[in-house]
UniProtKB/TrEMBL annotation:
GO terms, biological process: sulfide oxidation, using sulfide:quinone oxidoreductase
Signal peptide (UniProt feature, chain positions): none
Superkingdom of the source species: Bacteria
Co-factor requirement: FAD
InterPro entries, sorted: FAD/NAD-bd_sf (IPR036188), FAD/NAD-binding_dom (IPR023753), Sulphide_quinone_reductase (IPR015904)
Keywords, comma-separated and alphabetical: FAD, Flavoprotein, Oxidoreductase, Quinone, Transit peptide
Molecular functions (GO terms): FAD binding; quinone binding; sulfide:quinone oxidoreductase activity
Protein name: Putative sulfide--quinone oxidoreductase
Organism, as annotated: Gordonia sihwensis NBRC 108236
PANTHER family in alphabetical order: SULFIDE:QUINONE OXIDOREDUCTASE, SULFIDE:QUINONE OXIDOREDUCTASE, MITOCHONDRIAL
Domain FAD/NAD(P)-binding: 9-306
Amino acid sequence: MSAHTIDHKVAIIGGGNAGISLAARLRRAGMTDIGIIEPAETHYYQPLWTLVGGGRAPASESARSEASVMPQGVGWIKDRAEGVDPDAQTVSTSSGTTIHYDHLVVCPGIQLDWDSVSGMAESIDTPQVSSNYRYDLAPKTWQMIQKMRSGTAVFTMPSGPIKCAGAPQKIAYLAADYWREQGVLDAIRVVLVLPTPGMFGVPVFAEELERVVARYGIEVRKNSEVTAVDPDGRSVTITDNSAGTTDELPYDLLHVVPRQSAPDWIKASPIADPENPAGYVQIDKNTLRHNRFDNIFALGDAGSSPNSKTGAAIRKQAPVVAENLQASIAGRPLTAQYGGYASCPLTTSRKTMLLAEFDYTMQPAPSIPLIDTTRERRDMWFLKRRGLPALYWNAILTGRA
């Protein structure tokens, strides 16, 4: 191998939740010669950012050094993947390095397409606009919520798959509950813009969320999406996709969520799904192996499997990929199956949470016995605030859960 070529039996693109937890599982199974391609020096527990934006957690609690979560015995390639050649079995990076692999796992996460909505990228630099989808902006969200005493607050959700699809709603509920505590909710018009026909894709959870928005008096624009932001005029254009109409809505506070898609380099690569404009890695939804390249797997947000893009999904996908990857290396049939499990911990107030668990059937798939998680609960709040972060840092990333 040349000085600019690295060889690994298993190469993993991405050192986030998916890449680290998978590598840890493989190491615990005795596998050696694993390389993770990850440029970031900081590892984030992103689900906490909603609580940061709602004033219920410090941002610093969501961040640790990437070195502290990297499994022992795994080669860390501090570089950014920029291309895959599945025929040559190589990954190219931004520094010009080539990584040759026997098996490849693709899990770089997905990108935030700020420029896909006119004016959105510019708006986040103004005092009235923020987004919990960025670590540096989540504290700003809380500052904006605290300052607001009257006017119109707009919370948006884009069409298409996004990571943690409940997050656009959660911050609206946290804000509304804070304004209720402060006695100013009646002076604030709260508007939630959703691209979906219902509050949630699973009816039992949608019904509970209808009660939540009614309690706060939130105006929900369903089948709708913000298609333009005017930061100078402080207004958004809302398109009703069912009626084919648009209207302008002024705002005093705006929480935006950008459209999201696979990283651009994946879209342009041979491993992308050619029939999906979002460019996700084309995989079998159950085995998580690539449909055309038998030595490539994907998990997490960048895969084409039609599950909700959540950390809980990754927790169920990682053992499937670990088992099937080992079977593929040994030349055995792939027997592990992922059923589409995902969960969305929906904070419905500053002290209650609704734990929505479901799978490919879009029916409830509860994992906690003897507790009705189809209703918002106080005990579920402690799970969200304390239990899940502890599980993430101490068990998921170490391949134990």
